[in-house]
Structure to design on (614 residues):
């Protein structure tokens, strides 16, 4: 499935070499090395727009402040070492402000991602999710001591108890449920507007993808589904999900909606969906997911008979 | 795909109700409530074998010692509340020993799972992965303070900084690579025996399922693949993986094996695999994955032309 935003990251992550701290340090020391700064998890972007890469000297004050381990090794772009660096530390506000020059600014990841050149949004997904993980995992969950980045930022280590910690990726099922010639979309409780999307939920421990689809649809909409079919997947760095897109067939069309989770859920005909898609997602009294979300691709594929 | 061990958990997890501590406490107080004790992550099992459920009074000394929050709510089995309880605390050794009566013992999860009645292995997967997560996440990764179980053990909370923490589920791709009429199996570096299995690896931040398959095969075996097809998934509670089984087609048959990861990798003909499967997995100079692993089902499906 093509056109899924946040996929297509072109970097070679050099998973074996990055375990060697000297190798990572040598990559950062390369004159060609480039660093993507993120301020409060928003990447620097150019007017184009594209990712606002800087060379290492431009960020040296931040590296001096945060430590040589702070730049996270993302991978090699045709041999060019690429790093990400969080510059949200209050002590770096002056630097962050001074970086907003030469037509650069901080971009909202969700808004900017679909506008970036192919592949750049994948790099952004990686950078945002890993930096966020580091920012919220400064302590060892096993013993409570402080941890420090290792392996170019691909993990953190606890010097006190020896535990290694790796970034988490939370698998989420998102499923378009169909019944005869209609599909099921819902508006989440407490959500603004009249945005309607596919049902979704985190996969629980001890659960397969197919079981999670069945459980979530039952819990949220009160309808049993069978014939779960995998469609495509999408990295979703808010903060660290892997969206696993599926289709499923409902055994009936009676719904029993969980009002704690959903404000409303209903069946939409193929004609309704086709008209809304043709209008850029705007239906009568509802809006469909935008192309940045895999839900859009599920809906479109279903509407075009590709489910 | 049927017959995948650790899938088929029949419990109703009651995801909404379990958020209410009073509701969970009332379930534990039901006379019909049953608890699965695990000692060092090994479940109590009967001779049958089946899971060795006990009533709450039989485990009251452990609950008194560990606290009322220690039994983890697993779900409802036709309305009967089911819990899991870790009894590995050194102070509970006497209780653990006394429980090993009436034909019960502690079972090795991997060995016992395929022998359990359908669905029981799924319950075991849930119990083992959640208890292990609790045991290794007593502290807040955000601030280092101690955390405590919440929502019937479906999460932990930090009273100091307010953070909520949820069990992690690590998505892993496991892929059978095919080229013309052969498939690729490998023997991991440092692994005993001559066990050969499909390539596998953790999905990285900012990566789709399909991209992870391509990266891992390239890193480990030096061959490019395309046409990645999802097959089935499996919960794998060692400690908390979600195995995502795929097929992929190699662009060539030349291999460049990463010796740090793999001792050897080679192509196997369909005839070789068919003969080995017919011999219970024993080939000439290699053994195939056993049915407990999704790799077995990948290999069998490929051999039978279902890839």
């Amino acid at each position: 499935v093509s056109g899924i935003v946040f996929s297509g990251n072109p970097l070679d992550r050099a998973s074996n070499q990055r375990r060697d701290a000297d190798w990572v340090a040598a990559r950062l020391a390369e004159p060609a090395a480039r660093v993507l700064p993120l301020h409060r998890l928003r990447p620097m972007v150019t007017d184009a727009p594209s990712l606002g890469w800087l060379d290492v000297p431009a960020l040296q004050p931040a590296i001096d402040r945060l430590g040589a381990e702070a730049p996270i090794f993302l991978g090699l772009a045709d041999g060019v070492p690429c790093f990400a660096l969080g510059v949200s530390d209050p002590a770096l506000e002056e630097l962050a402000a001074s970086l907003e020059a030469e037509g650069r600014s901080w971009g909202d990841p969700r808004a900017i991602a679909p506008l970036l050149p192919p592949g750049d949004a994948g790099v952004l997904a990686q950078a945002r999710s890993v930096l966020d993980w580091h920012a919220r995992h400064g302590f060892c969950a096993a013993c409570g001591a402080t941890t420090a980045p290792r392996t170019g930022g691909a993990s953190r280590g606890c010097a006190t108890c020896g535990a290694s910690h790796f970034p988490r990726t939370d698998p989420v099922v998102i499923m378009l449920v169909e019944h005869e010639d209609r599909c099921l979309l819902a508006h989440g409780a407490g959500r603004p507007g009249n945005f309607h999307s596919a049902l979704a939920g985190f996969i629980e421990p001890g659960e397969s993808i197919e079981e999670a689809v069945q459980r979530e649809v039952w819990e949220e909409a009160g309808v049993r589904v069978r014939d779960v079919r995998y469609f495509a997947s999408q990295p979703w760095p808010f903060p660290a999900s892997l969206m696993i897109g599926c289709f499923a067939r409902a055994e009936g069309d009676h719904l029993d909606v969980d009002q704690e989770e959903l404000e409303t859920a209903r069946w939409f005909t193929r004609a309704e969906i086709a008209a809304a898609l043709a209008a850029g997602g705007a239906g009568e009294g509802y809006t469909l997911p935008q192309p940045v979300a895999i839900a859009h691709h599920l809906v479109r594929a279903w509407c075009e008979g590709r489910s």
Remarks:
- Residues 120-135 of chain B form the longest helix (16 residues).
